[in-house]
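Page 37, continued from 36.
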């Protein structure tokens, strides 16, 4: 099978991917989720003419010229309005959010009022009609469409939905990613290692990548290099209703790279296997019924880079999110050799130099070296057959943070 370009691989991976069906969840659990239908106001806000300030509700004709003395006939705290009517020469002590009493058409702020005692106050600044009053429906009216379908629910959107009296919302279901690591040499962190064993690290990075775009991650553990062990975990992923199965390692061409055969044996239809990129050549993709299967390389750096380029866009689309890679233009901080037929993603340190980005590649790019990836804040993108480039030449950088 010929090597597939990065662009074509991403296009095929996303082909047919659409937001998952909706589910209704409590408002308190909806942060970051994506609406499957518009949010319509169930009430008017404010539901009545409300005071915008602490002060005195009065008739504007009584306070058009000052000083003016008024008789205080009652009090209106928020949540407990004054039930009477304000007449000529009268006022009601009022607080922010309380309904404006009948007869009053302005609010004199308390800083402009002097208490004379015996329920008498003196207004020291003139106040026009309508001042410091929030009219009913100022924010929205019942039946107004407040949030559109596809809106991600941030702090403001959640507060708006709550004020519109929605206790729950219909949102896109979060994609479930089942992660299966493979290899007899792998043990979980904290294990006592034998002489030929290493720690399984990739699953944690892949899970974090999935969660960063709103997906759920189900770590099914490590499968031994045996067909039946891998198949058992694949079946467990299907039983868990995973939307995406991610396998780690075992997708190359060695005698112990069994993933392809096991997945096709379980019914997967292979879409592509091996792409023209570095690191990450052994990437595999296929469909097992409605489940998308992504075979990531076993090398830790390749696994995480492929998660950035392919897994995150896929999961974001399934979750109804708009996801775009942060690619910027920079200048090379060091010379680079000519490239071959594969698209390179070179770990680099990116810094700001008087408003211009400078990307300096690390000297070693071995795909097993996680520390260098953790230190890097960008990946220099080198197109296939790119010629040698001197320091200072323009380049593209995929920002990681």
């Amino acid at each position: 099978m010929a090597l597939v370009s990065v662009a074509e691989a991403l296009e095929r991976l996303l082909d047919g991917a659409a937001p998952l069906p909706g589910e209704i969840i409590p408002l308190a659990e909806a942060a970051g989720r994506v609406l499957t239908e518009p949010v319509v106001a169930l009430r008017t806000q404010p539901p009545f003419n409300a005071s915008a300030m602490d002060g005195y509700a009065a008739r504007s004709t009584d306070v058009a010229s000052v000083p003016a003395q008024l008789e205080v006939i009652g009090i209106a705290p928020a949540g407990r309005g004054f039930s009477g009517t304000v007449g000529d020469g009268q006022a009601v002590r009022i607080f922010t959010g309380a309904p404006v009493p009948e007869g009053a058409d302005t609010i004199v702020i308390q800083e402009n009022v002097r208490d004379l005692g015996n329920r008498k106050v003196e207004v020291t600044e003139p106040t026009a009609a309508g001042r410091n009053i929030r009219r009913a429906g100022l924010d929205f009216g019942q039946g107004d469409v407040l949030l559109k379908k596809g809106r991600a629910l941030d702090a403001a959107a959640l507060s708006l939905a709550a004020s519109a009296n929605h206790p729950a919302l219909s949102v896109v279901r979060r994609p479930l990613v089942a992660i299966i690591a493979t290899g007899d040499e792998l043990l979980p962190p904290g294990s006592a290692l034998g002489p030929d064993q290493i720690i399984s690290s990739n699953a944690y990075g892949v899970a974090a990548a999935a969660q960063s775009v709103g997906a759920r991650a189900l770590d099914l553990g490590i499968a031994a290099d045996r067909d039946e062990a891998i198949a058992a975990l694949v079946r467990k992923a299907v039983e868990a209703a995973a939307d995406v199965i991610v396998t780690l390692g075992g997708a190359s061409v060695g005698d112990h790279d069994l993933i392809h055969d096991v997945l096709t044996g379980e019914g997967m239809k292979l879409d592509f296997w091996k792409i023209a990129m570095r690191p990450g050549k052994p990437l595999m993709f296929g469909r097992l019924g409605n489940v998308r299967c992504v075979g990531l390389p076993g090398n830790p750096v390749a696994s995480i880079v492929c998660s950035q380029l392919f897994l995150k866009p896929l999961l974001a689309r399934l979750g109804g999110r708009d996801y775009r890679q942060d690619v910027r233009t920079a200048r090379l901080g060091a010379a680079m050799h000519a490239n071959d037929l594969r698209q390179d993603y070179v770990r680099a340190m990116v810094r700001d130099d008087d408003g211009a980005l400078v990307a300096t590649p690390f000297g070693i790019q071995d795909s097993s070296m996680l520390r260098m990836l953790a230190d890097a804040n960008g990946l220099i993108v080198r197109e296939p057959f790119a010629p040698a480039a001197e320091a200072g030449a323009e380049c593209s950088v995929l920002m990681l943070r």
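The chain has a mean pLDDT of 95. Flag for discussion at group meeting. The first strand starts at residue 22 and ends at 26.
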